[in-house]
Amino acid sequence: MLKLKKTKHTYECGTDEAGRGCLAGPVTAAAVILPDGFKNNTLNDSKQLSEIKRDILKPVIENDAVCFGVSHVFQEEIDEINILNASILAMHRAIDKLNTLPEFIIVDGNKFKPYNAIPHKTIVKGDSKYLSIAAASVLAKTYRDAYMNTIHEEFPMYNWKQNKGYPTKAHREAIKKYGITKYHRKSFRLLPEQLKLDI
């Protein structure tokens, strides 16, 4: 059973990102403050949920949350500052969008940079322990997937609708065959034999 909160603060915000290991597209983060008494038996780490369940949960979270924010950090910025910094930046920007200032921030993973002067705690596998982080993981994933589905229309040969930019065999084959797009992260090892890729 996921816990609602880590602390006794009224406004505790959970934050998480999606798309860190992808070869293309943004890293997307969400921040969510859930109300006291919030319960949901389906909500879990987005990776444990089917796409259908995530899509059902998205409006529930948006409707029931005290507030939420979602932010993309795109490939150009990822290439400039690296994926870890981009992930943290996306979380900070998602928190920027909250219309209630959090008193405490719980973060999925083990890396974060202080946000203003608000105390925070990093929690490994936090998305399977706390509801607000799980909620943030669902929003980050659904918003990012929706974005990848949109750019899929522009470059259908990479099948982003299916792989969402992750390094699947088919995605790597398409890079080998067609080269890269403006959505690919040039700082990533796009192919095992990158040296042969003329970028």
UniProtKB/TrEMBL annotation:
Q: Which Pfam families does this one have?
A: RNase_HII
Q: Where does a divalent metal cation bind?
A: D16, E17, D108
Task: Write out the GO biological process terms.
Answer: DNA replication, removal of RNA primer; mismatch repair
Main EC class of this protein?
hydrolase
SUPFAM superfamilies for the chain: Ribonuclease H-like
GO molecular function annotation: manganese ion binding; RNA binding; RNA-DNA hybrid ribonuclease activity
Q: How is the cofactor bound?
A: Manganese or magnesium. Binds 1 divalent metal ion per monomer in the absence of substrate. May bind a second metal ion after substrate binding.
Where's it found, cell-wise? Answer: Cytoplasm
Chief localization class? cytoplasm
Q: Which InterPro entries match?
A: RNase_HII, RNase_HII/HIII, RNase_HII/HIII_dom, RNaseH-like_sf, RNaseH_sf
**Can you give the residue ranges of the RNase H type-2 domain?**
10-199
Example GO CC term: the record gives: cytoplasm
Names of the cofactor(s): Mn(2+); Mg(2+)
Could you list this entry's UniProt keywords, alphabetically sorted. Cytoplasm, Endonuclease, Hydrolase, Manganese, Metal-binding, Nuclease
The record lists the catalysed reaction(s) as: Endonucleolytic cleavage to 5'-phosphomonoester
Q: What is its EC number?
A: 3.1.26.4
**Entry-linked HAMAP family:** RNase_HII_B (MF_00052_B)
UniProt cross-references to NCBIfam families, sorted A to Z: PRK00015.1-3 (NF000595)
Role: Endonuclease that specifically degrades the RNA of RNA-DNA hybrids.
Which protein family is it in?
Belongs to the RNase HII family.
Q: What is this protein called?
A: Ribonuclease HII
- Identify the species of origin: Jejuia pallidilutea
